[in-house]
């Protein structure tokens, strides 16, 4: 249960204001580990894009973000602000490749604190092995 004091103070008020991204991973017997990269709209809770990957590299994140920008229409729309990206502090989310990509696309990046309600309780990822 989240207490009122634990609620995050910057709640989204419209679609495409902030996107959450994360990897969910699982083991497929006989194949090995697979990683599901997702981009979820914080406001609508709708998964905008997803990609099944064999790695969890920054390149996988940028490819999923490319798909999300296309699917949402934000790729070609003339908007005042691109969606902010919320992620954890995993290696693919702190990589220089992602920093460069976000700079080119005009997206701001927010990294959540461990166990913060906005990244933990509302995360699109399930439990991890």
Question: Can you tag this structure with a few keywords?
Answer:
single chain, 129 residues, alpha/beta, 5-stranded mixed beta sheet, 3 helices, RNaseH_sf, Integrase catalytic domain-containing protein
Explain the overall architecture.
The chain is of the alpha/beta class and 129 residues long. The chain contains 3 helices and 5 strands. It has helices spanning 58-72, 91-94, 96-105, and strands spanning 18-28, 32-41, 47-53, 84-87, 109-111. The protein has a 5-stranded mixed sheet with strand order 3-2-1-4-5. Strand 1 (18-28) and strand 2 (32-41) form a beta hairpin. Helix 1 (58-72) runs parallel beside helix 3. The longest helix is centred in the middle third of the chain and has 15 residues, at 58-72. Residues 1-5 and 120-129 have low confidence and may be disordered.
């Amino acid at each position: 249960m989240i207490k009122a004091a634990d609620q995050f103070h910057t709640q989204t008020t419209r679609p495409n204001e902030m996107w959450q991204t994360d990897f969910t991973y699982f083991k497929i017997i006989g194949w090995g580990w697979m990683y599901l990269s997702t981009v979820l709209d914080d406001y609508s809770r709708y998964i905008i894009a997803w990609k099944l990957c064999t790695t969890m590299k920054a390149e996988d994140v940028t490819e999923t973000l490319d798909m999300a920008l296309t699917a949402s229409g934000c790729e070609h729309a003339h908007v005042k602000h691109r969606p902010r990206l919320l992620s954890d502090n995993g290696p693919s989310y702190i990589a220089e490749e992602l920093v460069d990509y976000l700079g080119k696309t005009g997206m701001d990046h927010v990294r959540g604190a461990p166990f913060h309600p906005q990244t933990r309780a509302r995360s699109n990822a399930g439990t991890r092995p």
